[in-house]
Write a structure and sequence with these properties.
Elements lengths: L6 H4 L3 H22 L1 H10 L20 H6 L15 E4 L9 E4 L1 H17 L7 E4 L8 H12 L2 E4 L5 H11 L3 E4 L1 H13 L11 E5 L5 H11 L2 E8 L4 E7 L6 E3 L4 E6 L12 E8 L10 E10 L11 E2 L10 E3 L2 E3 L1 H10 L6 E8 L2 E9 L9 H19 L4 E5 L14 E3 L1 H4 L1
Parallel strand pairs: 3-4, 3-5, 5-6, 6-7, 16-19, 17-18
Antiparallel strand pairs: 1-2, 7-8, 8-9, 9-13, 10-11, 11-12, 12-13, 14-15, 16-17
Bound molecules: adenosine-5'-diphosphate and zinc ion.
The site of zinc ion has 6 residues, from loops.
């Protein structure tokens, strides 16, 4: 049976959603123009006035905002209200550079937590669940977002934060956690640790996991579902728009519904800025429709995905986005070929390896090099050098087929690659050192 946190909005007709968006965008643009000088200057430069935005379709007239704008305007330049109205600051993880800080009024916190509550309910959560949140707490949005969502659902919330895996497992078993929230890489690590302690997947009470904050493949999903004995749901978001919960997966587990009553999504060509038709792959752009403190209009996420309005079996009507398989700046260009870490993960898991790997990129004698360290399980490990060499060769062949270029694969001893408790760092690109 389908369950919704806010059925009247989550299953609203297309006309109703557009009506909500039309109404909100007019107000939001006026709010930004009146209160955010940085964006008012951008609009003036483009010759756009708030009166020009009469409906959501007019959004195309507005200028884009980029991460660079956010860094330039740091810390208060994009603030949309007086600081005395704000109740919270959160910050990005700083995965790709200087951190961005975002501000929230109580209204902004409520709408964000409601989005997370929708995600928890979509994963089967109710007030009878025990929700173990092991995303990091603090400036990172993962912990606070899911924590607030869990409260709104009325679930029993376990605010574990990340790390201390032994304690995570002890509480999970003692307190009977039913829903696990963390990064997919940490979920994989928890699964591995449970097995090492002699637990079978059916020994825990978990039924679902809500995993996001980093790219992960379908192969990784299946591997986590197996090791924990659960259904694993994707959740997406970014600090700039509020945090996790901008979109979330439903029972269909195929794409994430975007909370369109709060966030308007567009797909653009990252090179030209042109808005692309539905079904095209491109850069995701978000407009917050009703945020007060940090209202971003047409924010370029650099995440690459596809939007679709195909009817969903869960009954939700909000547009879906595909898993972003890495941001435009995660893409490595190696000897002229575009390579995403997610392609490497797919090959590894298909070939029976664990998701414990590390990608090393460098430049030697003016040629790019790609090395992949892949950890063996104790069962795969062998003392015979010829066995290991044969496995490396086979994996290099499979990688070449997928990537179009041949990497050097190094199979390494069990437990030699450091595990992630938050966002995994998979790529070390040393080419920058020589530039
Ligand atoms: P940072 O940009 O420093 O990592 P955030 O913590 O706000 O800051 O992370 C937001 C980014 O994390 C998104 O733009 C996206 O690239 C990535 N992300 C979040 N959720 C997912 C997900 N479910 N799948 C893939 N990538 C995700
Ligand atoms: Zn659905």
């Amino acid at each position: 049976m389908a369950n919704y946190f806010q059925p009247e909005i989550e299953t609203a007709s297309r006309e109703e959603i557009i009506r909500i968006q039309n109404e909100k965008i007019v107000k939001q643009v006026k709010h930004v123009y009146d209160n955010v000088k940085y964006y008012r200057d951008l609009m003036d430069e483009k010759g756009v006035k708030p009166e020009d935005i009469k409906s959501i379709d007019d959004i195309k007239k507005l200028p884009f905002l980029t991460k660079n704008d956010l860094r330039e305007a740091y810390p208060y330049g994009l603030l949309g209200t007086d600081l005395k109205n704000c109740v919270r600051i959160q910050s990005t993880s700083g995965t790709t550079g200087k951190r961005v800080v975002a501000f929230y009024t109580q209204h902004d916190i409520d709408l964000w937590e409601e989005c997370c509550a929708r995600a928890i309910v979509a994963a089967g959560g109710t007030n009878e669940d025990v929700v173990q949140v092991c995303y990091g707490y603090g400036l990172f949005t993962g912990g606070p977002g899911l924590n607030g969502g869990s409260h709104k659902v009325g679930s029993l919330t376990l605010p574990m934060s990340s790390g201390n895996t032994d304690r995570q497992i002890q509480f999970m078993m003692d307190l009977g956690s039913t829903i696990l929230c963390c990064t997919p890489s940490y979920a994989a690590f928890i699964g591995e640790s449970l097995a090492e302690k002699g637990y079978k997947p059916e020994d825990n009470k978990l039924k679902a996991g809500i995993f996001g904050a980093e790219p992960w493949t379908e192969e990784m999903r299946r591997s986590i579902e197996k090791s924990l004995g659960i259904k694993a749901y994707d959740i997406y978001g970014l600090t700039e728009t509020s945090g996790p919960g901008v979109s979330f997966e439903c029972s269909e587990q195929k794409g994430m519904h975007i909370n369109e009553d709060h966030f308007y999504a567009e797909i653009i060509d990252p090179d030209t800025g042109e808005v692309l038709p539905e079904g095209s792959k491109g850069e995701l752009v978000f407009t917050s429709l009703d945020k007060e403190a940090f209202p971003l209009l047409r924010y370029r996420t650099r995440d690459i995905c596809i939007l679709t309005r195909e009817k969903c079996s869960c009954g939700r009507t909000h547009v879906k986005m595909t898993k972003p398989m890495g941001r435009s700046d995660d893409m490595m260009i190696i000897r002229g070929v575009n390579v995403f870490p997610s392609q490497i993960e797919t090959v590894l898991l298909n070939e029976g390896y664990t998701p414990n790997y590390q990608i090393l990129v460098d430049r030697k004698n003016n040629t790019d090099t790609l090395d992949i360290n892949v950890e063996l399980t104790p069962e795969q490990f062998s003392d015979k050098v010829s066995d290991i060499q044969a496995m490396e060769k086979a994996l290099e062949g499979a990688m070449r087929t997928m990537l179009g270029i041949g990497p050097k694969v190094h199979l390494v001893a069990p437990k030699s690659i450091v595990r992630s408790e938050g966002k995994a760092v998979r790529v070390i690109d040393n080419r920058k050192l020589h530039d």
